[in-house]
Amino acid sequence: MNRKLWFYRTTVIALALTSGIVLYLRSPRVTSEELFAILLLSILAVVAEFLGFVLPNSARGSIAFIPYLACALVVPTWATVAAVVVVRTLVEATHRSRISSSFLNIGLHALTVSGAIWLYDLFGGQGLLSMRSATLLQATLNTSLAALVSIAFAILANTTAACGYLAIREDQTLRSLWRKTALPTIAMDFLAAPIVFIFAWLYAAHGAIAAAALWVPLLGLREVQTANLELQRTNEELLQLMIKSIEARDPYTSGHSRRVQRYSIIIARGLKLSEREIEMVGKAALLHDLGKIYEKYGPILRKADKLTAEEWSTMQEHPADGANLVATMSGLKEIIPFIRHHHENWDGSGYPDGLAGNRIPLAARIISFADTIDAMTSERPYRQPLTEAQVRAEIIRCRGRQFDPAITDRLIASGLWLSLFQPQKRPATPERGLRLLGARKGVRETA
């Protein structure tokens, strides 16, 4: 058992339980009208939960946070938190999620909703049922600040807490995981904050039918969001399929692109690049050999003997071919230079354009390191994989000729250097239900 994960789950559950108990001790009485409101909004939450969508990293999302948080504005008491626990328990039981994941999901939702209630009260918010005669303008003037602060807190806290758990489980940084998992939907979630307030006011002032009239288009919005995420996932899967089809031609380079991607990300982090720059480097590294998908490279990739001058000349065309292919994808135009120039050498002896020094894009220089390291540490028909010491010696020997000397020095001196040679951890099994409110006189490399 991962102690960090156990401690994380225990802390979340303990905080949620404490918050709920204090809310109960503060105001245990709940009227029948409040209970009826909680019941109706909980039913809408159940509908939304079962229309959830899958996010990156196997997390799940839904628009159930709208009735959850609306309920917190209409009836800001412990009973709302209890209803959230009941709804989440029902959903977790139906999805047959792992017990550990289920408890975490329930605790996260209870904690964020109770936290929203505390903030709502702190900023002077009143239960909207007690303001049923107020117009939307009056309700906005009296409670909108408290409502928007509490809603924003709940969305951000739930998303960050869930990403924190995933970061520990998958041994990633919180920032990078938040960017991949939460960023695709966080903007729409925050834009939904005023909608939550209006939805809550509609219910309190005009009843369930008026609130339901707004709920229908919200479900339509959810379908649009789901379609966008599905399109993004499909595009990523198609890219992976293309890479696998290229590597299937050469049994000695199976997994090469994914390993180069991993090495490139490690090196980019060692150079203190921003998360966005690291993401771009990772995408370019995964696609750096995309040009080899053309049939002219097939026989050459399957050849075990030394390449002829003509074959070598053909292989030197693959960076440009890959860049031209990527240029047809509008969402990947930023990484075209990184793919085209990943075989350029620091002294200008590389290909396809003979760039030298800082004229070579930084991402391309990083991929060059990663590509070469993988080539040297992979088994080939003509040799066994090189050791870490041998790779280090070759990298140093080619410093200033093939490789950027500044990156070479920084990489060799960095503690991340040895992590390049550690066995890669197997990806963690997704926990269902985790939800979110060569080279010229240089190192021998693959062509």
| First-last Cα distance | 43 Å
Order of helices and strands: HHEEHHHHHHHHHHHHHHHHHHE
Q: What is the beta-strand fraction?
A: under 5%
Radius of gyration of CA atoms, rounded to a whole number: 27 Å
Quick tags:
single chain, about 450 residues, mainly alpha, three-stranded mixed beta sheet
Structure report:
- This protein is mainly alpha-helical.
- It contains 20 helices and 3 strands.
- Strands 1-2-3 form a 3-stranded mixed beta sheet.
- Strand 1 and strand 2 (60-61) form a beta hairpin.
- Helix 2 runs parallel beside helix 4 (78-95), helix 3 (65-74) crosses helix 9 and helix 5 runs antiparallel to helix 6 (136-170).
- The chain starts with a helix and ends in an 11-residue tail after the last strand.
- 41% of the residues are buried.
- The model is unreliable at 54-59 and 426-447 (pLDDT under 50).
Q: Secondary-structure blueprint of this entry?
A:
Blueprint: H1 3-26, H2 32-49, E1 53-54, E2 60-61, H3 65-74, H4 78-95, H5 99-122, H6 136-170, H7 174-181, H8 183-191, H9 193-206, H10 208-247, H11 256-270, H12 275-286, H13 298-302, H14 309-315, H15 318-326, H16 336-340, H17 362-377, H18 388-397, H19 405-413, H20 416-419, E3 435-436
Helix pairs in contact: 1-4, 1-5, 2-3, 2-4, 3-5, 3-9, 4-5, 5-6, 6-7, 6-9, 9-10, 11-12, 11-17, 12-17
Question: Can you describe this structure in just a few lines?
Answer:
65% of the residues lie in helices and 1% in strands. The protein is mainly α and 447 residues long. Strands 1-2-3 form a three-stranded mixed β-sheet.
